[in-house]
Amino acid sequence: MYVKVFIIILCKSASRIETNFAEAIKTEHGEEVKKSDIRWVLTVPAIWSDPAKLFMREAAEKAGIEKDQLFLALEPEAASIYCKEQAIRKEDQDGGAILRRFDPGEQYMVLDLGGGTVDITVNEVCSDGKLKETYAASGGPWGGTTVNEAFRKSIEDTVGKDHFSECILKDQNGWIDFEKEFETEKRKFYPCDNVTHKLHLPNYFVQTPSLQLAEKFKAKHGNALKVKENYLVIHSSKMEQYFDTAIDKIKDHISNLLQRKELSKLSSIMLVGGFAESRVVQEKIKTYFKTKTVFVPPEASVSVLKGSVMFGHNPNIIAERISPWTYGVHTRKAFNKNIHDIKRKQTMAGKEYVNNAFDKYLGIGESVAVGRRSLGHIYNVINPKDHIVYWKVYRTEKMDPLYCDENGVYFLGSLEIELPRNEEEKKWRLELHMTCRGTELEASVSDADTQEQFKRLKFDFLRSEYGLYSNIVSE
Ligand SMILES: Nc1ncnc2c1ncn2[C@@H]1O[C@H](COP(=O)(O)OP(=O)(O)OP(=O)(O)O)[C@@H](O)[C@H]1O
Ligand SMILES: [Mg+2]
């Protein structure tokens, strides 16, 4: 029997994981697993840039994972795939409550509330059950650690910067235990419980009476945060304040998103990720967005993991994506006095050109069918003796930039191909296509006359050896 194993990774040694997995499958199911049976799914935050994603791909390949067996999944999208299969509470025609999955045409938002970041995607269920992205992924640094940072800051502000640094330096273990205790209390916290939370103070604080800790806390926080014997006692009102920054930022961001006309059909908000386990986060989001069904699926903290496995089984489940940027390549174009700046006009061999022209492929906010090639653009190779041809890829938030060197247009990386040695000095006409492949952008080049596809040498988002010029010109 053919066994497929999907593994979510963050690893140094792929082969060690493969070996352990193969052994585990053999013991449990008696099946042999070949290396080629394994499909790896590497999850990345959706708001990461293309170079950051490529960096992860390269790192995974260096760890020994075969290129064709590796898929990159966007974390909130993986969570969304998992959420789509969840039955959520809805009203039936008579106003009663029923449990149903999302129907085709329904839109829902997934908030992946992690430690560092909050990653947000909006999906709509297509008639064939696949998902389309309705609005480009967004988010920000408002995850669960924001609460810990607010706590830390209030201690620092009360004891003073110097004593605070000294405590961390001189009593590292004490401080780590203190933070761990806070983490436990943070996870238990629910404002309605109206309880206090007691943490053992680090020894440095206890053994330095000259700090006058009790007095300092009383003066600054009254009963909300006080020192009692060897403990710091946090009242639930104070604990709630520590959550406020993160929750307010999340609420504001969702409110802004809900103003957009693309999201007018949105019915539900799903909360996943570790921070979504927090009862105070759940309650506040539910209270604020009363007109939407706010739902926390079971095992919210592992929905990215479970959704990634589902994505590994069916990478085509996301059928349409929204382009987060306008993408184009650097080329030389025929000068057009109606659109181009006259100061940029150059004359070469009797023809008028503009250099540094931006040749657009995808527009920001454009809906792109996954796996469907863009229209091809044709380029001539300037020097027939060149057998390495390269394109420089740029991205921008502008819809229709004219030049690659205008403000707000950024270099992304270069694509390089190798042409067969050109003995007869053939005039090459090359056709370039861009394709949205899963979570990554793919470029392909063919001979425009024969349609022969060239092997891609490199699509390098991380560095470029090329300067300002191109060795191609738009036809
Ligand atoms: N019951 C809970 N109450 C409050 N916070 C919680 C609870 N359970 C987990 N968290 C918080 O969730 C966060 C971790 O979530 P998660 O495991 O999804 O993060 P991550 O995926 O590692 O981070 P990121 O997505 O930012 O890379 C931590 O800040 C943790 O304190
Ligand atoms: Mg996460």
From TrEMBL:
Keyword Signal recorded: no
Keywords for the protein's UniProt record, in alphabetical order: ATP-binding, Nucleotide-binding
Native organism: Potamilus streckersoni
This protein's name: Heat shock 70 kDa protein 12A
MF terms in GO: ATP binding; ATP-dependent protein folding chaperone
Origin: domain of life: Eukaryota
Family under the similarity heading: Belongs to the heat shock protein 70 family.
Pfam families: HSP70
The organism's taxonomic lineage, starting at the top: Eukaryota, Metazoa, Spiralia, Lophotrochozoa, Mollusca
InterPro entries found in the cross-reference section: ATPase_NBD, Hsp_70_fam
